[in-house]
Amino acid sequence: MKFMKIGTRPDIFYTEEATRSVISDLPCDLVIQINNITYLLHKFPLLPKCGLLQRLCSNSDDSSTITLELHDIPGGEEAFELCAKFCYGITINVSAHNFVPAFCAAKFLQMTESVEKGNFVLKLEAFFNSCILEGWKDSIVTLQTTAKLTEWSENLGIIRKCIDSIVEKIPTPPAKVTWSYTYTRPGYKKTQQSAPRDWWTEDISDLDIDLFRCIITAIRSTYILPPQLIGEALHVYASRWLPDTTRTRSPESSMSQTDDVTEKNRRILEAIVSMIPADKGSVSVGFLLRLLSIANYLGASPVVKTELIRKSSLQIEEATVSDLVFPSRASSSQHVYDIDLVVQVIESFLMRWRRQTPETVENTQLLRAIRKTGKLIDTYLQVVARDKNMPVPKVVSLVEALPDIARKDHDDLYKAINIYLKEHPDLSKADKKRLCRSLDCQKLSPEVRAHAVKNERLPLRTVVQVLFFEQDKGSRTTDPRMLTQELFSRGKQMPIPVDDLNKLHLGGDEQSVRTDGTRRTPVPESSSRDYRKKKRSDRNSQQLEPEIEEVEGKKGKDAREEGSSGSKLDPKKIIQSRSRSDHGRDKGRDR
Fold this sequence. Notes:
The chain is mainly α. It has helices at 43-46, 51-56, 76-88, 99-108, 120-132, 137-145, 150-155, 158-169, 201-204, 209-222, 227-241, 259-275, 285-298, 302-313, 321-324, 339-354, 358-363, 365-384, 392-401, 411-423, 429-436, 446-454, 460-473, 480-488, 528-541, 571-590; strands at residues 3-6, 13-16, 19-22, 30-34, 37-41, 66-69, 92-95. Mean pLDDT is 82; it is low at 250-255, 489-569 and 587-591. Residues 488-591 are annotated as: Disordered.
């Protein structure tokens, strides 16, 4: 950065306790008090250049010592000392760091051309116009220093001129950027021929939020830069000033910030949200979700949260799992991940989706968006399922938030449920049923169905549903006899009550039992053909009693003959074997 050197004499100021004096053979005849500092000076060098001091000393005798109090001088004692050294001809250096206080103090002391030619104000104005405003970092540093003298800087036009200079340089084509700038992004090499398009974003992120907003507002009013560059500037500023909420919550995290810091961060967040361009894609959904997590952490207003949820839902299909994984900040919760925020974003996304007609859903990209969202959520569930303190209701709320059409298959959902059951081995039967009730065996691939039949963690009802679907479909992928033998191999044999299977009806002439009232999100039907297919596939599953473990009935003999090539699965026998296995595990747990 540039600087201006004025004066030729060496520094003759010295300090003695709280007094600043100059080395001179002449006695002191001017005492100036500023805050807690007393200056012992001389009238001759100061009065000819300072109009204010001339007016204050006009009624005094030339031979007497005058004492003045200048506690309200802008910039304080440091700024006054620069002006005093200029009057004595002592060498001083003026740069972007001290220009604002020096200029304001010189204006306060009336060191203008009307008092003496070549005065301090004229020299400072020349330096400001020819050096500071022509430079990039000089303008930004000068603008930063106006924070302590905001009113003076506004009245003297310093802020407006600096902002105009910065805004004028930002649209410069990257190939024509010749000044120094800060750019620390990974992978960037300054040996490149031209500057990156967002070369200006890091430097302006050092400014106060009010000054930053003035620059962003001025840039947007020119309509020169694309919204994506504006969004990048907001992203850099948020990374610079807002707290990082991606780390796991610690017990003392809520006490780590004072109320003043929290309020400042909240004000920065609200300002950033208000500056996000309305254009879709101007900022990434990952950035929006991070702002939402920060808003929840800082206790931002409901208006800010609602706006972030709405904006995030418009781009949720573009998110990754890492974008959704942010820690829970609720002091009462023991689980690691904040799943409630994800549910709110999904519900906002579905509000827009439900307003569409079935024909629109099938024929537009909205169907692709909701399918990508379903895939994303099921993958996200596989992550949060590893949280040992994650309660079943929260997982179920996210599973059931999506309509049926969002999942083309249930393989990923099955994986998430299996992980949850594995990480929570002491889960009750009721919770297992609640967790698995949204799992549709018709949407499982043959490989996953084969795994489900062998999966001892699943509730019995789910396994039987898979077997019935295999039997109804006549699947050749998995050998029915192999599946039956797999279930029979579990657990030790134990007696079955006399009427153990009476309520399970499998024949077409037998009376069906009532099914579990599982809540399903209504969705537009793809076609009448798909509906009839689903209706036919659900027929066998609807014949199951939800409380299979408690059913009563006679223990019929095997309907399947061993070794018969056209044999079918006997679900009664499978349930009998699985019940023995479950009962054996329950007894072992009780012991």
